[in-house]
Amino acid sequence: MSATREAEQDRTVPRQPGDAMPPESVLPELRPMWWEQGMRARVDAGLFGVFAGMPRLVVEALRISWSADRLRTAVVAVVTLAAGAMATFGLLATQRVLVALFAAGPTPDRVRQALPALAFLAAATAVRGGLGIATGYAMNGLTPKVNQRAERRLFETTTAVRLDAFDQDSFADSMERASRGSDSVIDLVQAVMNLLAGVVSLCAVMVAVVVIHPLLLAALVVATAPNAYAALRAGHVRFQTYLESSGRRRRMWVLHSLMAERVSASELRSYGLRNFVLGLYDRVMGAQTAVEMKLARRMTTTTSLGAVISGLASAGVYVLLGMLLLDGRIPLAAAATCVVAVQAAQRALTQVTFQTDRVFTEGQHFNEYVGFLRRAADYLPQQPESAPAQPGPLQQLTVRAVSHYYPDRDTAAVDEVTLTITAGQTVALVGENGSGKSTLAALIAGLRDPGAGDIFWNSRPLAGWDSTALASRIAVVLQEHHKFPFTAATNIAIGDIDTAPDRTRIEDAAQLAAAHDMIRELPHGYDTLLDRIFADGQDLSGGQWQRITASRGFLRDADLLIMDEPSSALDPRAEDTLFQAIRGRQGRRTTILITHRLANVTHADRIFVMHHGRLIEEGTHAELIAAGGRYAELFGLQASGYINGQATAPADPVTKCAERP
After folding, report:
1. Nearest Cα residue to 513 out of 471, 482, 557
2. At a CB cut-off of 8 Å and minimum separation 6, what does 124 contact?
3. How many of the other CB atoms lie within 10 Å of CB of 543?
4. Where, residue-wise, is CATH 1.20.1560.10 in the chain?
């Protein structure tokens, strides 16, 4: 289904009475995005076109299984094929039993002649049962190992890609489909093994049928092919719908989170959003249900037609067999054997058809996994041609004509910025919201690559240094920090986790960020789990979390500390403690401070003022006030709120107010 048709289906879903649903123009996120049309090539791929890529996918899946556990993979392969061979021996034994029973002579003599074949048949059946047990045992041990290997490979990629990968609209959807594909590895391996076993059994039966009469083989193929094609076609249609529903699945995941998670519960109730989000659920889930109902009708029609045609053809096989028997072209014993062979052939063909459908279905899901890994490779950091150098202590940081654009934006977030920072300096990046401060800081930290220009650490571009070693010399305290569901101690230790910091270092860092006393007041102190969804977990306020994240930055005691709005949620006393710690680094370590509270940067060695991505002013606080430019204007706006005795700063849509002069 095209994106346009998907939108049409969204519009056809009836609203529930009383649901106040805004139009699509108010909620454009519910409309199909342009990138969803990029899946059309895979959705429209023909059945045989998809099959052409299956051998490559099968080899890749077997390679993963082999690397996860060679012994169990080999056992599954050998035992599965052996079980298929046992079916051949069972058919041969059955044939010998029937020949003996239909031979001339007294019944006791015929039974005695059939006993060896019966014993062989019983043995083959027992061996096949034992092989099935061995296969199950091996698969039970192989499955978790393969799943772990495939999933780890996925996470190895997602944790290594550059940050700009997550700026791409299609990346998250592709990753969602890849996570389903990682579960398909073991299913694909097992389906391939069972398919091979079915092929072995089918070959044996085909030989037996051809020996009886060649026409019977052609009739069997006619009897099975329609059902097989119908099953494969239904699987392809099912996967097409899966691909097309990727966007809706993510929307439903978002709605599930809004309606069932603690973080959104307060605002959902305070704004009276219950009917609103339920209406969105009805809209999105209604569209998905309509698609699934249409899928069910198509699959039922396809498989029913295949079953009817195959059933009629199967009846034709027995009619043909009866005609051959009546014409005397085959003896009665051969006819009886043929009946068994026909039934065995149908079972084998059914197994082959079913396993082929599994290979086809799981292969398509696995293809999403493989395709995501291939596409994600474009976002991996480039490796230098020569061995990267180990960075020494920071002496000078130079930003030279650096620009950066975000996807689908015409204006630069950072526009040809040039500046120099000397070791030991405390510098401030200030400006209105959206001026490019945080983006520039991310570029300096190596979290993003500049689109133009370069950044130098001690006269060498950042890309020329060993990235891991360079990262160890930089600490970043983000404005949009993540609340890790770990203990308070671990949340701070994350700042320098590779060194396994002891409790003394952790507490010292917490002291610098005014977090120590706050943590000690928690039910279990530093061992308190900071997440309510777990037993004995605790919530923290925004200011308390800000202290935790500042502690992470202080723990590393890095050459370069970048702090992005570190005090926006702090009370005055905690804010004063934090900035005393920042001032304590001055002359010893380098600090880049991003803040809207200009009173906190008056002590900075250098202040860089940004506006619309460009660096428009720089100097000390005194120099910039004397210049009477944008910095002086913003500082004056903040100071006036206190000079005039106002509780808050003057209304300004893009400038935050300083909480103290």
Report:
1. 557
2. 86, 89, 90, 93
3. 16
4. 48-379
CATH 3.40.50.300 fits 483-557, yes or no: yes
Instruction: Kindly tell me if the per-residue pLDDT of 210 is higher than 70.
Output: yes
Answer CATH for 394-473+560-620 from 1.10.8.50, 3.40.50.2300, 3.40.50.300, 3.40.640.10:
3.40.50.300
pLDDT at res. 117 = 72
pLDDT score, position 288 = 82
Q: What average pLDDT score do residues 266-293 get?
A: 81
Q: Enumerate long-range contacts of 97-104, CB under 8 Å, 24 or more apart.
A: 97/121, 98/333, 98/336, 98/337, 98/340, 99/333, 99/337, 101/333, 102/331, 102/332, 102/333, 102/336, 103/333
Q: Strand, coil or helix: what is 500?
A: coil
Q: Which residues of 21-54 are buried (b: 16+ CB within 10 A; e: fewer)?
A: beeeeeeeebbbeeebeebeebbebeeeebbeeb
Q: Determine the pLDDT at residue 558.
A: 92
Q: How big is the CA angle at 28 (ends 22 and 34), to the nearest 5 degrees? A: 150
- The string of pLDDT tens digits covering residues 378-403 is 888 876 666 678 899 999 999 999 99
Whole-angstrom Cα distance, residue 342 to residue 228? 17
pLDDT of residue 198: 77
Domain 48-379: give its CATH code.
1.20.1560.10
* Mean per-residue pLDDT over the chain, rounded: 79
Encoded amino acid at 354, one letter: F
What pLDDT does residue 16 have?
A: 43
Contact assessment for residue 184 and residue 369, using Cβ atoms and an 8 Å cutoff:
yes
> What is the distance, to the nearest Å, from the Cα of residue 96 to the centroid of all Cα atoms in its chain?
56
Distance, CA of 60 to CA of 89 (rounded, Å): 33
Nearest one of 300, 150, 177 to 239, comparing CA atoms = 177
Question: What is the distance between the alpha carbons of residues 609 and 625, in angstroms, rounded to a whole number?
Answer: 12
Q: Which residues contact 331 (CB under 8 A, 6 or more apart)?
A: 102
From the number of C-beta atoms within 10 Å of its C-beta (0-12, 13-18, 19+), residue 317 rates as: buried
Question: Quick one: pLDDT at residue 105?
Answer: 66
* CB distance 569 to 373 below 8 Å: no
Question: Between these two residues, 453 and 97, which has the higher pLDDT value?
Answer: 453
Rounded to 10°, the helix 572-584/542-556 angle is 10
Report CA-CA distances (Å) from 215 to 210, 541, 600: 8, 80, 92
Instruction: Kindly state the helix (H) or strand (E) to which residue 591 belongs, with its residue range.
Output: strand 590-594
Residue appearing with tokens 């209406």? 279
Residue 301's CB: how many other CB atoms inside 10 A? 12
Closest of 224, 193, 399 to residue 306, by C-alpha: 224
CB-count burial class (<10 Å; 0-12, 13-18, 19+) for 382: exposed
Q: 107-158 and 171-212 are packed helices; what angle lies between their axes, rounded to 10 degrees?
A: 160
Specify whether the backbone of 309 is left (phi greater than 0), alpha (psi in -120 to 50) or beta: alpha
Higher pLDDT, 607 or 291: 607
